[in-house]
Design a protein that fits this description.
Layout: H1 2-7, H2 16-27, E1 29-34, E2 43-47, H3 54-63, E3 68-72, H4 82-87, E4 91-93, H5 106-118, E5 122-125, H6 143-154, E6 162-169, E7 178-183, H7 200-215, H8 226-241, H9 247-266, H10 271-289, H11 293-297, H12 302-317, H13 319-343, H14 352-379, H15 381-420, H16 422-447
Helix pairs in contact: 2-3, 5-6, 6-7, 8-9, 8-10, 8-16, 9-16, 10-16, 12-15, 13-14, 13-15, 14-15
């Protein structure tokens, strides 16, 4: 059974990159950064797993190629979802907690995966073994290391890229929230490649290296309560000290701040508590004024504001397109939210975006067909075709304009807040500078 799933049901695999792009960009505001992954050839992709099946879409988008995934066996028979899991060429993994009698089939599954990687396929796996909502990377299973060593044996003991991909979400459930995906440098394991999957010590060591490479591209918090503190500290430090833009640089700063906080907590010095209180108080005040650390440092004279507004005027003028999209797509979006949320109850909170996107795809397709049929009834077949093609483009355009419009109006509010409270703003700037100096000291202390 395992072999038939692997070799036969792959008819949607060629469409997976396109489907994944629409899925992640339609729901989130996505930023990608990091290394350039291999465009072809054998590759094992290892990623964290905090957002159910949408993690698959993010990995495909970041990889920029077709990827086949290891997936727990129950997904292949899950109502309404199993057909898709099979159709994109997923490989079943039989877990003891699902059905102990089927675990022996993993021997055949792993042999097939060895062959797939050795012949040049990209295979993706989530080595934590479960989708979770924990605040950090969970202990890895050994499957990824065994697959790599088994495939290397088929390649004559030659290593191939094991590429870590990390995903960090601002608010996984929220529509149009930000998502960061970072591709890490390939794991170094040439010295282990010839030892084979039966070498337990090689499996343990490679698992350790894979975990280290994944920690470099993921945010590993002590607890979720630290998330806002760490993010605000990074924003303050970046506003005051500068910093490279992009998802990879931001994640690196967040990781350094998280690591410093964890180290300082282990000591007896309570200085980190004082800085934490300062950061949180600063965040509350900025929030009441509608400001951010970066806005606090921005030039807000009339000339700078006018030039800034002029650059964004075209996007403001296109606001009617966003309004049209809101009206046309309100019904299918509301249906996708309601139906997707209800369908996710069995799988839990982590799967809410997955089911919203999955059911939303079907609902929007039906909606496009209905509107195209209406246009065809009124103006003919050509109008129907044009309508069906134009509606997805209108939807994507409306999302982009809506995101930009929100940013513009937020910035306009910040401008007036800075102009209306100059003395208070100046005091906040001094306080932010002091917080940045304290953060410098703590980061230095944690690193020493």
């Amino acid at each position: 059974m395992a072999r038939s799933i692997i070799t036969v049901t792959m008819w949607m695999l060629p469409a997976l990159p396109t489907m994944s792009w629409f899925a992640v960009h339609g729901y989130y505001r996505v930023t990608r950064g990091g290394a350039v992954p291999p465009a072809s050839g054998p590759e094992l992709i290892v990623a964290n797993h905090t957002n159910s099946l949408l993690d698959v879409a993010f990995v495909v988008v970041a990889s920029r190629r077709r990827v086949r995934f290891m997936a727990k066996a129950p997904l292949f028979t899950y109502p309404g979802l199993g057909w898709l899991v099979k159709a994109v060429g997923s490989v079943p993994v039989y877990r003891r907690q699902d059905d102990p009698k089927l675990v022996a089939q993993n021997l055949d599954v792993f042999r097939d995966v060895y062959h797939a990687v050795a012949r040049g396929d990209a295979v993706g796996i989530f080595p934590e073994g479960i989708a979770h909502s924990a605040s950090g990377l969970q202990p890895l299973k050994t499957g990824a290391a065994r697959i790599a060593l088994g495939a290397a044996a088929e390649l004559g003991g030659r290593a191939f890229p094991i590429v870590p991909i990390g995903m960090v979400f601002r608010d996984r459930r929220a529509f149009r929230s930000s998502a960061r995906v970072v591709v890490g440098e390939a794991c170094a394991w040439d010295d282990l490649a010839s030892r084979g999957a039966s070498d337990r010590e090689a499996v343990r060591e490679l698992t350790r290296r894979i975990a280290a490479s994944m920690r470099a591209v993921t945010l590993n918090l002590h607890a979720w309560q630290d998330e806002q503190l760490v993010r605000m500290a990074e924003l303050v430090w970046r506003a005051e000290r500068g910093g490279e833009p992009g998802a990879e640089a931001e994640l690196s700063r967040l990781a350094a701040t998280t690591d410093a906080l964890a180290r300082l907590r282990l000591g007896d010095d309570g200085s980190w508590r004082q800085v934490a209180r300062q950061v949180r108080a600063h965040e509350r005040i900025l929030g009441r004024l509608g400001l951010t650390p970066a806005a606090l440092r921005a030039r807000m004279d009339a000339g700078s504001a006018a030039a800034w507004l002029a650059r964004r005027l075209p996007m403001i003028l296109m606001t009617p397109i966003a309004a049209l999209g809101l009206v046309l797509f309100w019904i299918p979006r509301a249906l996708a939210d309601v139906i997707g949320t209800r369908a996710s109850v069995k799988e839990g909170e982590d799967s809410v975006p997955t089911f919203r996107v999955m059911y939303g795809g079907v609902i929007f397709l039906v909606w496009f067909l209905l509107l195209a049929a209406a246009a065809g009834a009124l103006w003919g077949a050509l109008a129907a075709v044009v309508t069906f093609v134009a509606l997805p483009l209108l939807g994507l355009g409306a999302l982009a304009i809506g995101d930009s419009r929100r940013f513009v109006w937020q910035s306009v509010r910040q401008y007036f807040a800075l102009r209306r409270h100059p003395e208070r703003v100046e005091a906040l700037r001094r306080r932010q500078g002091e917080i940045a100096r304290h953060l410098d000291e703590l980061l230095s202390e944690a690193g020493s």
